[in-house]
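Retry 2 of 3 after timeout on previous attempt. Resubmitting structure tokens to design endpoint.
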């Protein structure tokens, strides 16, 4: 049986629907960006991230079959595009902030600032690559399931999240607004790993598995730290001023010193909380106070109740205690 193609004609409803939507824009001005000039582009930021990752991991991401003879040409093609994308977004971010805070600020001031910081960002990329090489090595050293570094670069979500974080952190440290957060939140959506670009993370950092990790803005992490899935380095409370408004920029998140391991689903909260060097925090531990160096923290072993049924359906119950565990 032949059926006519399905059609939908909005017809006479169109005008009223348009008016209702436009009215809603006026009624909720906080969720629209109308009659304002500039805003960073999420689409161009996504392209910037992709091109930066191609630059950080040549031959793995983007163009393949690179050789010692053509890699310079490849970089020569990539850098101008990266520079243009970075400059456009940095310029938009500064113009956006000027529009919010100082209407009438000359665009030339935003342009000069954006040009200088774009060059500074590009000049710092080799140092970022050096940090990322240490992160890849830390993943290989920390995960017995890893076949080699190639697998880590191609497949590990933790490395992807850390890679984008390290690039965004450079921009954040320069005082560039909005753009770093758009970058890390894109990685968050892709990997399930939420790292604020303002966090400070030392070399040789490894997130195993990754999903559900949260690292807050004022977290300070040392060298050779390893986190498992579900770890939260969060805020215990939010300081407020005399009018009840949040005080921004205060130290709210923990400090994690060198060579610390934090196992799955552990929660560490508070700006005064410090996990000392070479400490181990076990799985599902909840911490709001500091841990001295070289200590291991675990929770009390859980009690398990196991019920057995015989052929007649009668139940007997056994209680089992698990040993102290970390994962």
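Retry 2 succeeded. Sequence:
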């Amino acid at each position: 049986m032949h059926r006519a193609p399905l059609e939908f004609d909005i017809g006479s409803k169109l005008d009223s629907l348009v008016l209702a939507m436009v009215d809603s824009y006026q009624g909720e001005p906080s969720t629209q960006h109308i009659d304002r000039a500039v805003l960073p582009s999420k689409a161009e930021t996504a392209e910037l991230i992709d091109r930066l990752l191609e630059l950080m991991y040549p031959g793995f991401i983007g163009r393949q079959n690179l050789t010692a003879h053509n890699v310079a040409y490849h970089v020569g093609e990539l850098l101008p595009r990266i520079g243009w994308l970075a400059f456009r977004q940095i310029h938009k971010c500064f113009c956006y902030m000027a529009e919010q805070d100082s209407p009438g600020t000359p665009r030339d001031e935003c342009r000069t600032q954006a040009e200088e910081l774009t060059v500074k960002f590009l000049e710092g990329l080799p140092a970022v690559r050096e940090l990322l090489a240490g992160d890849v090595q830390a993943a290989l050293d920390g995960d017995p399931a890893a076949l080699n570094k190639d697998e880590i670069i191609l497949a590990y979500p933790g490395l992807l999240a850390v890679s984008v974080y390290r690039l965004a952190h450079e921009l954040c440290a320069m005082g560039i607004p909005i753009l770093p957060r758009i970058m890390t939140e894109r990685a968050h959506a892709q990997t399930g790993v939420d790292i604020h670009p303002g966090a400070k993370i030392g070399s040789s950092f490894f997130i195993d598995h990754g999903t559900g990790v949260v690292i807050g803005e004022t977290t300070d992490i040392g060298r050779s730290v390893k986190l498992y899935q579900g770890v939260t380095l969060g805020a215990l409370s939010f300081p407020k001023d005399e009018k009840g408004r949040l005080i921004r920029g205060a130290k709210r998140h923990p400090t994690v010193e060198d060579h610390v391991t934090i196992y799955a689903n552990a929660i560490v909260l508070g700006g005064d909380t410090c996990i000392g060097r070479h400490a181990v925090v076990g799985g599902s531990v909840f911490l709001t106070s500091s841990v001295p160096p070289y200590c291991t923290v675990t929770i009390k072993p859980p009690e398990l109740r196991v019920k057995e049924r015989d052929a007649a359906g009668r139940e007997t119950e056994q209680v089992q205690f698990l040993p102290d565990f970390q994962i």
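Attempt log closed. The domain at 199-327 is CATH 2.160.10.10 (UDP N-Acetylglucosamine Acyltransferase; domain 1).
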